[in-house]
């Protein structure tokens, strides 16, 4: 007996505040050995979470599009809630409980993910698909909040670093259900645990991130680490995307829309070329929003649907990698159209 079909019914998103231009960071830029590295070429704009805004606030605002198109009862009756927050509002706690309460939900299953990173939306799709197919409910909501740009990378001691001008904040939600509307064709998730230790959070002078003391934490990039991350990302994203395509008898020419995470322009170009997907079929918002981390894939998918860049019946392939390359994932859906 074949398992029931699970579809990605819709996505909606939210960007906080007014766009922040690149020259905002040029005022603070200092001499930095990584300043000219291709990894850190600044986008034209990005958005930052407001000072009084929380991850739960962002997700609530991101969900409004789905509520407007499908009705509040569709959200309130969701059985499974899966969340990923780049920077939890409270240590130790994920955002699942707060999101459920704010959206009027009483899900039977709430899962807060941490290891998915920039591919968290695809990891959430994989988990929701398995749970729904196994009978754990009839619908699921995946909520992703990227909120580190305005809270970590804009700290006075961090914003002068080359890495600070690239991230942007945003949130998105995806609605899944037992349905034939926009079937999930396949998902590929791969863990590369040997690379997990290459993602470091550095403070000068050294201390644990949770210990009090001077200095603001930042991501510990070096030329050697960047070289390794570039090599891994260039390889992993096309590999997982092609794995999904090949299992379903698809070639890259069958991809109607490619949606990836967007660390920088170099990755975006290299992934397109590796998959032989023309630029017009690879959606990104890098110059408008910067690196949106885990929120990038659903925000860009929402943007593409809104702009009619994907038509009913076309195959959408989502792919991304996380952190320093310790996780990569891809998913393919056959888009069936959005409820108006």
From TrEMBL:
Alphabetized InterPro entries for the sequence: ACP_syn_III_C, ACP_syn_III_N, Thiolase-like
Domain Beta-ketoacyl-[acyl-carrier-protein] synthase III N-terminal: 115-193
Keywords assigned by UniProt, alphabetized: Acyltransferase, Transferase
GO biological process, one term: secondary metabolite biosynthetic process
Domain Beta-ketoacyl-[acyl-carrier-protein] synthase III C-terminal: 245-335
Any GO molecular function: 3-oxoacyl-[acyl-carrier-protein] synthase activity
Protein's name according to its UniProt entry: 3-oxoacyl-ACP synthase
Species of origin: Mycolicibacter nonchromogenicus (Mycobacterium nonchromogenicum)
């Amino acid at each position: 007996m074949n398992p029931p079909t699970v579809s990605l019914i819709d996505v909606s998103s939210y960007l906080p505040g007014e766009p922040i231009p690149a020259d905002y960071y040029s005022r603070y830029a200092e001499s930095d050995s990584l300043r000219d590295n291709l990894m850190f070429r600044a986008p034209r704009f990005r958005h930052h979470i407001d000072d009084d805004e929380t991850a739960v606030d962002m997700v609530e605002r991101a969900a409004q599009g789905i509520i407007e198109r499908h009705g509040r009862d569709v959200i309130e009756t969701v059985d499974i809630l899966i969340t990923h927050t780049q920077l939890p509002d409270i240590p130790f706690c994920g955002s699942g409980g707060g999101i459920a309460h704010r959206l009027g939900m009483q899900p039977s299953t709430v899962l807060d993910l941490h290891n998915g990173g920039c591919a968290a939306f695809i990891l959430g799709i994989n988990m929701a698909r398995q749970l729904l197919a196994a009978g754990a409910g009839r619908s699921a909501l995946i909520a992703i909040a990227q909120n580190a740009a305005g809270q970590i990378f804009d700290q006075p001691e961090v914003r002068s670093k080359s890495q600070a001008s690239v991230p942007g904040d945003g949130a998105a939600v995806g609605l899944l259900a037992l349905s034939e509307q926009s079937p999930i064709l396949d998902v590929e998730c791969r863990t590369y645990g040997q690379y997990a230790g290459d993602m470091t959070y550095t403070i000068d002078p050294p201390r644990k991130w949770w210990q009090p003391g001077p200095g603001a934490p930042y991501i510990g990039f070096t030329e050697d680490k960047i070289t390794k991350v570039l090599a891994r990302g260039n390889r992993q994203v096309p590999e997982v995307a092609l794995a999904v395509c090949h299992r379903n008898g698809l070639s890259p020419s069958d991809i109607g829309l490619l949606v990836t995470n967007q660390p920088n322009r170099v990755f975006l170009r290299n992934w397109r070329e590796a998959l032989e997907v023309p630029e017009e079929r690879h959606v990104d918002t890098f110059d408008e929003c910067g690196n949106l981390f885990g929120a990038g894939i659903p925000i860009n998918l929402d943007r593409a649907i809104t702009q009619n860049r994907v038509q009913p019946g076309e195959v959408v392939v989502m792919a991304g990698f996380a952190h320093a390359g310790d996780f990569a994932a891809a998913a393919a859906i056959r888009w069936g159209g959005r409820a108006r």
